[in-house]
Design brief:
The structure holds two protein chains of two kinds. By secondary structure, chain A is an alpha+beta fold. Chain A has one domain: TATA-Binding Protein (2-Layer Sandwich), CATH 3.30.310. Helix content of chain A is 23%, strand content 41%. Chain A contains four helices and seven strands; from the N terminus they run H-E-E-E-H-E-E-E-E-H-H. Chain A has a seven-stranded antiparallel beta sheet. In chain A, strand 2 and strand 3 form a beta hairpin. In chain A, helix 2 packs antiparallel against helix 4. The mean pLDDT of chain A is 92. Chain B is globular. Chain B has a single domain, classed as Muramoyl-pentapeptide Carboxypeptidase, domain 2. By secondary structure, chain B is an alpha+beta fold. In chain B, a hairpin with an 8-residue loop joins strand 3 and strand 4. Chain B starts with a helix and ends with a strand. The longest helix of chain B has 18 residues. In chain B, strands 1-2-4-3 form a four-stranded antiparallel beta sheet, with helices on one face. The chains are: A alpha+beta, B alpha+beta. Chains A and B meet through strand 6 and strand 7 of A and helix 2 of B.
């Protein structure tokens, strides 16, 4: 019997506005959800940084064609993406991380 | 056949996972102007994996890929363990070559599909998918390992 997480792989929904979320298979015991549909600029990452610790790989300084890679580590949650990119990948570690899903989505989609 | 299939499964999840990652989105994709750039971009990334030095020898867009691996770990391993071979021995390289072409030109990895068993079937078993073969192998005495992927 597949777990609820396995059954939901491929499930898509719209948390808010144009942003689309899709549940993906993860290799670990965690939920992996992709958020796309918009360009996620510095304002989004500033909001997400409030959740925990932000680290930035400033790839644009090495090659201006590349975007800076941003990661935010919070309790039970790992958020990855590029500044001004069109994809954010969030890993929610149950149970604590999953409880933060709506908050993370509110920060991604904004006011 | 089983080892080549294992190579394809590895390519599907490794290459597919990389091309759908946040890092690809931020670092490689902005530099890709054409579909062919996705092939060159992925081969560049593979060179950071320690699988030998991969390079594109020839690419006929959407039709054929000739890929060369210098220092393939599979041929190194075979030579060290068994000596010279009379058949090609780089199964991951073979599966990787077909996997690369199938993901990019056959199954549309660019639209970021979920890497499910159904998508694996579409990638490697439906329509005019790519099949790869190793045409030169260091384990057989060649200087490099060379792979060709063509549509079935």
């Amino acid at each position: 019997m597949p777990s609820r997480r396995e059954r939901l792989v491929g499930f898509r929904y719209r948390p808010h506005g144009r942003v689309e979320a899709e549940v993906r298979k993860s290799c670990r015991d965690e939920w992996k959800i992709l958020y796309s549909g918009e360009r996620f600029g510095a304002d989004v990452w500033d909001r997400l940084a409030a959740l925990g610790e932000r680290s930035v790989f400033e790839a644009s300084k090495l090659n201006p064609k590349m975007k800076d890679i941003v990661r935010v580590h919070a309790e039970g949650v790992r958020i990855e993406g590029a500044r001004d990119g069109e994809l954010i990948v969030v890993f929610f570690v149950p149970p604590r991380g999953l409880r933060q899903r709506r908050r993370v989505e509110a920060l991604i989609t904004g006011p | 056949m089983l080892l080549k299939e294992a190579g394809q499964v590895c390519a599907f999840h490794t290459f597919g996972g990389i091309m759908e990652s946040a890092e690809w989105e931020g670092l490689i994709k902005p530099q890709c102007k054409t579909t062919e750039d996705w092939v060159y971009g992925m081969v560049s990334v593979v060179n950071a994996l320690g699988w030998g030095r991969w390079s594109v020898a020839a690419l006929d867009p959407g039709q054929r890929l000739e890929l060369v691996i210098d220092g393939s770990y599979e041929s190194n391993g075979y030579l060290a363990a068994f000596g010279k071979s009379n058949t090609p021995r780089c199964y991951l390289g073979t599966g990787g070559t077909s996997g690369l072409m199938n993901l990019i030109y056959h199954a549309g990895i660019q639209s970021r599909p979920a890497l499910t068993p159904a998508f694996y079937e579409k990638t490697f078993n439906e329509g005019r998918f790519f099949v790869a073969r190793e045409v030169e192998c260091r384990a057989m005495g060649a200087s490099q390992c060379r792979f060709v992927a063509e549509r079935l």
